Amino acid sequence: MIPLPYYVKKRIVNIIISAIMLIMLAITLLPVGWMVFSSLKSSTDIAIGRVGLSRNLAGQPVVHWENYVDMWKNVNFGLYLKNSLIICGSTMVLAMIFSTLAAYALSRFRFPGSDLFSNAILATQMIPAIMYLIPLYIMFVKFTVLTGIPVKGTFTGIILIYSAFFIPFSIWILRGFFASIPKELEEAALIDGCNAFQVFRHVALPLAMPGIIATGIYVFLTAWDELMFAWVLTNADTMTIPVGIRLFVGNYQNRFDLMMAAATVATVPVVILFFMLQKHIVKGLTAGAVKG
Amino acid sequence: MLLLHIFPIAQGIYMAFLDLNQFTLQRYLLAPFVGLDNFYAVLIDPGSPIRIGLFEAVRNTVIYTVVVTIGTLVVGMIVALMVHRNFWGRSMVRTLFMFPWIVPTYVTGLLWGIMWLREGGLVNVMLVDWLHLMPHKVSWLTGTNTIWAIIIPTIWRFWPLSMLMLLAGLQTIPEELYEAADIDGAGPWRKFWMITWPMLRPVWFILILFGLIYNTYSFNIVIMMFGFGAGFPGEWGDLMMTNIFRNSFQLWNFGTGAAASVLLLIVMIAIVNVWFRYFKRAEEMS
Questions:
Q1: In chain A, positions 7-26, which contact chain B (CB-CB < 8 Å)?
Q2: Same domain, B95 and B159
Q3: Does A127 touch chain B if contact means CB atoms closer than 8 Å?
């Protein structure tokens, strides 16, 4: 056998790696495809374990597009979608306002306890969520008993909790963004006669905007994903999607097809959001890691 | 703002010492103080409801956390190296690889619950009917198979994040290092272990740290896969978080739940400290 020249060898290796990569890509995307495919089956198809679609008398496969209509009627999915949007949107705005201010302060000014504050932010990430949940649940119940103001099952309650939960993480990411803005720019603005707030408003804020958007989207995605708190702290009127989606399968019905349709619908907004702002998100998430 | 954190945590720790269940809930923090009884119930008392299944939950959590953390790192590294090369359609492929990471975790749980089904689940269909790798269909959601049924979806959901971070790290490694290694006659394997892996140290340090924390506290995927919140994941699928959640909010034993989460927090602080210390020592040695 004639030894291959190195560039041919390199080419072959490259093609093999590309092939493996494409197979991995297929495996990666397969479950998502299966979700969409299952959402077009009938509930009997899934119950009896039929792999493909069922066929009608003429032998044609039946695609159950009506699942996407039925899912809104079967359980009140529209309400859950609306609740999720309200809760996640408000959380994002609230968390971003507070964490932007706090992150700017931490990156620019040193005050007594600023180191402690930074460490405390990281430490909050280590605490199991359930450790907050138990006291918060009892606090909510007790507060309503004492004052008559409902907290459990209201938007205000869950939005406050979510914001408090996401602010530390946001501060941690945003601090890196503010730290990467050159101090000279702000000093120049100070010399030109800006006060400290104007410097923040007209220099630091616009420069950190990509980072703020990325962090905001990340907060939205994480809030969209949150199940445990929503489960305990919402009621039938303020239920979010992860809590409501469970109702498709339960004591009275077994509609896996509708559940998959609902899961697809719940995934779509997130996918759109991600692909629209993909550049920002990728940059924002990796900025911290590469700096080390 | 920190008030919102410290206040509940302080209460959470205090509640670990109270006999708090649905009868004493009305009395809130004035519930009977029982000292270390809750910890006794969690750790030692063989008859208490939370002690039953605790050993399984701890064992599963350890296996789950270690395998998922390493698995996401390995898969992420392999794919990051693959998409780091130059090829046609590179940015498209990179974006598509990110897809699982955008799928919400509760959808991941539901979706894989369908995939693992014995009849008509995609995994069995592929392995048995199409590829003929297995002689007969497997029940994935019972017995010891359960632990794999929760590990694999979690890896599937989280490795794109590792890939993204490692890829960003790969791009910062100067090309000259590899050229120098080429001149010295190093093969690809050696180049990876002598250059790529050490240069990526800050990235995988963070990835392992957060992987350990988040996977120990993993909840959504497991709870959604088994009975959609109502069911019990089985003795090979129950994790610490699902165990504590069930005890607190379905059996209404808040005191023991708080005690168990305090213990979990202590273990977590210890693990994070050990990892930091190990990392610092490795840093000094190199």
A1: 14, 17-18, 20-21, 24-25
A2: yes
A3: yes
Are B115 and A31 an interchain contact pair (Cβ–Cβ within 8 Å)? yes
B199 and B133 assigned to the same domain = yes
Inspect the interface and report whether the beta carbons of A46 and B269 lie closer than 8 Å. no
pLDDT at position B69, please? 93
Point out the residue among A18, A20, A263 whose CB comes nearest to the CB of B111: A263
Residue B63 in any domain: the answer is: no
Enumerate residue ranges in chain B where pLDDT < 70.
1-8, 15-52, 227-231, 286
What's the mean pLDDT when you consider all of chain A? 80
For the segment A187-241, what is each residue's pLDDT rounded down to a tens digit? Answer: 888 888 878 788 888 888 888 887 888 888 888 888 888 888 888 888 878 888 8
Q: Which of residues 239-258 of A touch B (CB under 8 A)?
A: 241-242, 245-246, 249-250, 256
Is A58 within the bounds of a domain? no
pLDDT of B265 reads 85
Lowest mean pLDDT among A9-13, A60-64, A156-160, B100-104: A60-64
Using the 3D structure, point to which of B237, B252, B274 is the last residue of a domain.
Answer: B237
For this complex, say whether ipTM is above 0.85: no
Chain A residues 135-164 with CB within 8 Å of chain B: 135-139, 141-142, 145, 160-161, 164
Interchain contact B125–A (C-beta under 8 A): yes
- Predicted local distance difference test score (pLDDT) of residue B213: 86
- pLDDT, residue B77, reads 92
pLDDT tens per residue, range A130-150: 777 877 887 777 777 777 777
Whether residue A39 lies inside any domain: the answer is no
Cβ A126–B265 below 8 Å, yes or no? yes
In this complex, do B2 and A120 lie within 8 Å of one another by their Cβ atoms? Answer: yes
A135 vs B8, B249, B268: nearest CB = B8
One domain, residues B212 and B267:
no
Interatomic CA distance for residues B191 and B178, integer angstroms:
7
